[in-house]
């Protein structure tokens, strides 16, 4: 066993000894004697994920982190509960046991502090992967994400680059309330200097995270909590330890000729199911999975709309200034005269996420919404050729 | 005599005047309390013991700097403790009130766990079992118009503050009869009527809010010349929060502006799975107060009577205008961080140690031993609380889910978002107002 494994416990004991000398703590004293805690590591619970034919998104992310930590000693992981707790969502399970406390760092609850520390270390060539327990918590650190990381290369005249990755679950989950459910794709996507990635399935999660970690620019990697446990088939190529996906390239999930649906993250799944139902009604929908909000794959979207002549954008975030707005703008810029109908946006409701279960269901797009809007788009204006 | 009756509060005397002369104590001129715990006496010269002082009771050496404990202070602590032995800390009514409040908190949280596992509640639910003494000890001393802020572990703070159990349970079920109409949820309990200002998912977020509420109280007093404005606000938060930047910023500003706020750290040693000892360079949180010149205390948070004694002093200080206090309460949560937490990292020995110090059991013992209440009294309280909690569940079950139309309500206070016109009414109510005209 590596020495690192023992270190957490050893540090713990020396700490206790120091405290005993300082005080004869007997009830009522402010110095409490820490108890000895068994770590799940010693119980053999934590194992790094193995790449397989079918993986869930959680394991795919875990395997990507594992491979990148092995490949490059400058990579390290930092965040709340990433180490001993095995990750708040278990994305980093087994990593502490394998790489030790210097490379898998549990932090106090200090988003602004540890994000800034990560950014500063990236200036000097380290490659931090900073985990936010929820991307909503990144709002406490957004100053560093934008001002220290995204703008740095520009402000320094190209001299200081920031090869950092910020990652965490983004957007609505189930019943977690207004402060845990915001989608940040649009906010981060509007900032030049920051790459914004939003994977959908396990293969994308793996490929894009590996690409982001190897990337010289700051990347923010927006995952989805509801997809963590969902299994997807993995291609043979994706099992390779150097498998990376290109950033800034969308994927056409399903070819079609009547309407283009542009979406990302969890809504891809729902759009694919809606497309099956629409096909029965004679509407052939082309589904584009953006994968990357910034840089946005404008050629892909435009080529698709030139083919189908109709556009529907789909996202879970708020409508005003959302990702859909940028997609529609790019179509109007480049492919306006190819449109047969006004472009439609399907977004989350323009309210903070309510807690009540029925209101929450109304606040996020559903399959019925997609079908209804696509049909409306297809039956409005000139008929497609 | 029950062990609870001896008061063991360790308080450093805080000297905010640096330099040799302690005589320019910059603090409330009038209210020189006779309690040496927190009050700095104007004109009092500092005692001979400057430098390293051993605080009574625990032998912790406190370095000099901002904190200088006078010999007089320790002596007063000793004397007070001795005289306390002869007196009871609560009357029968108070004791029963405290007992009822703690039992309500405990039963309610146990019911929440049941309801969660039955699927009636969802999302994140963080239970307060084991920490009731802190909530009851502080909040029962407040008035209805005083303010409380909390974190996501806020059900019991809401109940102690007076929000009816029915409304809290309905909110947890996401029904329209909940205190936030079902829009907030477990982590976002608000009640304007009861002065409960949340309920925040981001820890540390409640602290500036509480300080702001205290600011409004001081503002009303000084700018609006309302002599009756002496509301106090309390911010409850945990050990993990004490590492967050907002905490330090607020300690500084609250002390600088001498705001009537109390910072209560519910130190239960764990922030999800992160032990306090692994995440904090100096684990004694109460020591962070003196760094800002703030009076602070550490108290056994599993003992409601001790908490109450300290709280009385802190609340009195705040109401007098003597400024903020930082109080670290040593406490423990019997359940995991949330109902989704496997709780594998805490050792069974630690859990057993604190289970033996259950605050409700301790108070019961105190009341019975000092003949403040009989078994029958306590049993009847427990029965009453069972009924209250059952009734709350039935009410919440029977309440309707919010209407569809409620989804878009309450985004703005202003009905149409056009603002207020020169006549002081909403522009959208003015029949002559046409939307989109900048001139109007």
UniProtKB/TrEMBL annotation, chain A:
Major subcellular site: mitochondrion
GO biological process terms held by the UniProt record: pyruvate decarboxylation to acetyl-CoA
Metal-binding as UniProt keyword: yes
Obligatory cofactor(s): thiamine diphosphate
Top-level EC class as recorded in UniProt: oxidoreductase
Transketolase-like pyrimidine-binding domain ranges (all copies): 55-230
Gene3D superfamilies reported for this sequence: 3.40.50.920, 3.40.50.970
A Pfam family that the UniProt record links to this protein: Transket_pyr
Subcellular localization(s) per the UniProt record: Mitochondrion matrix
Catalyses which reaction(s): N(6)-[(R)-lipoyl]-L-lysyl-[protein] + pyruvate + H(+) = N(6)-[(R)-S(8)-acetyldihydrolipoyl]-L-lysyl-[protein] + CO2
Keyword Transit peptide in annotation: yes
EC number: 1.2.4.1
Keywords attached to this entry: Metal-binding, Mitochondrion, Oxidoreductase, Potassium, Pyruvate, Thiamine pyrophosphate, Transit peptide
Gene Ontology molecular function: metal ion binding; pyruvate dehydrogenase (acetyl-transferring) activity
Membrane-spanning parts: none
GO CC terms of this entry: mitochondrial matrix
InterPro entries membership: PDHB_mito-type (IPR027110), THDP-binding (IPR029061), Transketo_C/PFOR_II (IPR009014), Transketolase-like_Pyr-bd (IPR005475), Transketolase_C (IPR033248)
PANTHER family, per the entry: DEHYDROGENASE RELATED, PYRUVATE DEHYDROGENASE E1 COMPONENT SUBUNIT BETA, MITOCHONDRIAL
Quaternary structure (record): Tetramer of 2 alpha and 2 beta subunits.
Function: The pyruvate dehydrogenase complex catalyzes the overall conversion of pyruvate to acetyl-CoA and CO2.
Name of the featured protein: Pyruvate dehydrogenase E1 component subunit beta
UniProtKB/TrEMBL annotation, chain B:
GO biological process, one term: pyruvate decarboxylation to acetyl-CoA
Keyword Oxidoreductase included in the entry's annotation: yes
Cofactor: thiamine diphosphate
Coiled-coil zones: none
Domain of life: Eukaryota
Transmembrane segments: none
Alphabetical list of SUPFAM superfamilies matching this protein: Thiamin diphosphate-binding fold (THDP-binding) (SSF52518)
PANTHER family registered for this protein in UniProt: PYRUVATE DEHYDROGENASE E1 COMPONENT SUBUNIT ALPHA, PYRUVATE DEHYDROGENASE E1 COMPONENT, ALPHA SUBUNIT BACTERIAL AND ORGANELLAR
Function: The pyruvate dehydrogenase complex catalyzes the overall conversion of pyruvate to acetyl-CoA and CO(2). It contains multiple copies of three enzymatic components: pyruvate dehydrogenase (E1), dihydrolipoamide acetyltransferase (E2) and lipoamide dehydrogenase (E3).
Protein name: Pyruvate dehydrogenase E1 component subunit alpha
Source organism phylogeny: Eukaryota, Viridiplantae, Streptophyta, Embryophyta, Bryophyta
């Amino acid at each position: 066993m590596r020495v690192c494994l023992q270190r957490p416990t050893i540090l713990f004991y020396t700490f206790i000894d120091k405290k005993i000398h300082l005080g004869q703590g007997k009830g009522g004293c402010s110095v409490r004697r820490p108890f000895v805690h068994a770590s799940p590591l010693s119980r053999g619970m934590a194992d790094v994920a193995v790449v397989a034919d079918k993986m869930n998104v959680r394991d795919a992310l875990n395997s990507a982190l594992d491979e990148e930590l092995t490949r490059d000693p400058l990579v390290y992981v930092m965040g709340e509960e990433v180490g001993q707790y095995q990750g708040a969502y278990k994305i980093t399970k087994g990593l502490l046991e394998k790489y030790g406390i210097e490379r898998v760092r549990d932090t106090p609850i200090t988003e602004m502090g540890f994000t800034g520390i990560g950014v500063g270390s990236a200036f000097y060539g380290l490659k931090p992967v900073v985990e936010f327990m929820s991307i909503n918590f990144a709002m406490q650190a957004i100053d560093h994400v934008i001002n220290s990381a995204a703008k740095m290369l520009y402000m320094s005249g190209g001299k200081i680059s920031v090869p950092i990755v910020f990652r965490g679950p983004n957007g609505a989950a189930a019943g977690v309330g207004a402060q845990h459910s915001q989608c940040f794709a649009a906010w981060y996507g509007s900032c030049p200097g920051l790459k914004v990635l939003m994977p959908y399935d396990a293969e994308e999660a793996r490929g894009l995270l590996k690409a982001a970690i190897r990337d010289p620019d700051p990347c923010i990697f927006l995952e989805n909590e509801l997809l963590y446990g969902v299994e997807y088939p993995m291609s043979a190529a994706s099992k390779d330890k150097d498998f990376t996906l290109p950033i800034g390239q969308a994927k056409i999930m399903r070819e079609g000729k009547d309407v283009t649906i542009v979406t990302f993250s969890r809504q891809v799944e729902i759009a694919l199911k809606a497309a099956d139902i629409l096909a029965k009604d004679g509407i052939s929908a082309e589904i584009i999975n953006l994968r990357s909000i910034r840089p946005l794959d404008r050629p892909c979207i435009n080529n698709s709309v030139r083919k189908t002549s109709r556009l529907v954008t789909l996202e879970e975030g708020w409508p005003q200034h959302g990702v859909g707005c940028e997609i529609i703008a790019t179509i109007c810029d480049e492919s306006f005269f190819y449109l047969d109908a006004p472009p439609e946006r399907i977004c989350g409701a323009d309210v903070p996420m309510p807690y009540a279960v029925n209101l929450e269901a109304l606040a996020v797009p559903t399959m019925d919404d997609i079908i209804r809007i696509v049909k409306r788009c297809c039956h409005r204006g000139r008929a497609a050729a | 005599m029950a062990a609870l009756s001896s008061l063991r509060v360790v308080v450093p005397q805080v000297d905010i005047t640096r330099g040799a002369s302690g005589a320019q104590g910059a603090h409330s001129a009038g209210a020189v309390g006779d309690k040496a715990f927190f009050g700095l006496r104007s004109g009092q010269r500092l005692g001979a013991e400057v430098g390293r002082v051993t605080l009574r009771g625990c032998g912790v050496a406190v370095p000099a700097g901002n904190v200088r404990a006078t010999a007089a202070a320790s002596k007063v602590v000793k004397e007070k403790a001795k005289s306390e032995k002869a007196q009871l800390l609560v009357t029968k009514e108070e004791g029963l009130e405290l007992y009822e409040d703690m039992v309500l908190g405990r039963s309610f949280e146990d019911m929440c766990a049941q309801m969660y596992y039955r699927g009636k509640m969802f999302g994140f639910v963080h239970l307060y079992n084991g920490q009731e003494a802190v909530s009851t000890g502080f909040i029962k001393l407040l008035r209805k118009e005083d303010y409380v802020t909390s974190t996501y572990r806020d059900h019991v703070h809401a109940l102690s503050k007076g929000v009816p159990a029915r409304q809290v349970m309905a909110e947890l079920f996401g029904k329209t009869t909940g205190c936030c109409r079902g829009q907030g949820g477990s982590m976002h309990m608000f009640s304007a009527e009861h002065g409960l200002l949340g309920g925040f998912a981001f820890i540390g977020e409640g602290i500036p809010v509480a300080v702001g509420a205290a600011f409004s109280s001081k503002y009303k007093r000084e700018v609006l010349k309302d002599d009756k404005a002496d509301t106090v606000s309390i911010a409850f938060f945990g050990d993990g929060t004490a590492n967050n930047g907002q905490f330090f910023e607020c300690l500084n500003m609250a002390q600088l502006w001498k705001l009537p706020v109390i910072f209560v750290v519910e130190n239960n040693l764990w922030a999800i799975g992160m032990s306090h000892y692994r995440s904090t360079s100096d684990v004694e949180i109460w020591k962070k107060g003196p760094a800002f010149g703030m009076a602070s205390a550490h108290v056994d948070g599993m003992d409601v009577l001790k908490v109450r004694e300290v709280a009385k002093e802190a609340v009195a200080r705040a109401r007098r205008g003597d400024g903020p206090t930082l109080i670290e309460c040593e406490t423990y949560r019997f359940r995991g961080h949330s109902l989704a937490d496997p709780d594998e990292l805490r050792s069974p020995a630690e859990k057993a140690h604190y289970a033996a110090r259950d605050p409700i059991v301790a108070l019961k013992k105190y009341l019975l031993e000092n003949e403040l209440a009989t078994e029958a009294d306590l049993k009847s309280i427990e029965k009453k609380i069972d009924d209250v909690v059952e009734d709350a569940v039935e009410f919440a079950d029977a309440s309707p889910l919010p209407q569809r139309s409620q989804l878009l309500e309450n985004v703005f206070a202003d009905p149409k978002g056009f603002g207020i016109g020169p006549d002081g009414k909403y522009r959208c109510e003015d029949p002559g107002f046409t939307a989109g005209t900048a001139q109007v």
